Amino acid sequence: MKVLVLAPHPYYQERGTPIAVDMLLNVLSDRGDEVDLLTYHEGRDREYPRLRVFRTPKMLGLSNVRPGISFKKIVCDILFFFSMLSRLARVRYDVIHAVEESAFMAMLTKPFTSTPYIADMDSLLSAQVIDRYPVLKNCGALLRWMESLPIRYACMVVPMCDALADDIRAYRSDDSIVVLCDVSLLRSNGTDAAPSLLRDELNLQGFVVMYIGNLEPYQGIDLLLGAFKLAQAQSGSLSLLVVGGRVDDIEKYRTMVGDLGLGGTVHFLGPRGVDEIGHYMSQADTLVSPRTQGINTPMKIYSYLDSGVPVLATDLPTHTQVLNDDISLLVEPDERSFSSGLLKLEADASLCRKLSANAKEYVKREHSYDKFKETVNGIYARVESFVKHQSDES
Question: Is the pTM of this model over 0.90?
């Protein structure tokens, strides 16, 4: 099939949605589909057979587009929409695979092109808007109605977790909803670079806590630092390593660390490549996800579970649709509870071994790359049948 993949974000970058799109492109290429990818002007090109990459125009000031809603992203999406129209005017596609907000754009063009589209959902955009702008909370019903429109008119809807699927079922039948979960990224772990031995380099003592990911507000970094301070006051032998984040966010949290009196015990390592994360995880005593907002499961959770290191996370739907008490330690999303979780794992080596062994077995069974590939192939087999039926009718 000839597929247009709409990815309204920088590609390729080593963060959640761009990584998921990259895996999708890899599978479609293996299927033999001809794929055109439309994405933002930022990011690195990746090469796959039968893949062409098209980018939105560069504009002065439109750099470092970060996750979530922002003025820069709105401008990029306007440029993206007109770039999409240009593609559709030139090429007749069998299907559009529309990621996140681009499903609205695919819906708007459908009456004129008759091209079916897949709505690929990584989050609830209405919830993102309200989280960012609480003043719009009273407009929640209107935002949810608007969000439902591209869901209703898509040929298939592909949410990335069960919680999103549950929301979508209010608008369409179950048989056209297929959950496409993320997977562990440790399958391709390995790097030619000399390994970094963090305990020696940073003179780390005692129990090492590690967070990997961006430092956006929804990730709960403020909660993590507050909890770490409480735990450190009791333990005295904890170290916290933060892997990832933009320079400006790192500087903001370094200032907070100083204000909390945690200097020397919290280390910001900056972004690291996907091929390095397994090595970094293996040097931790626990991996943490203090996330406080959203219902979509963070991609890092699957790699955390695959790492052989125990996982501590907030007891919220964003985590509990994948995590349970057999494979992780779940705590209430407040500083005191998270602090207690850190101290519990530090004190109980037997619990750490049990959780990490159970987690590794679970993720290999349920969230492998082969499982991801099988699901994508199943989705596109159904779409192919739909397109053929539509063609026969016309």
Answer: no
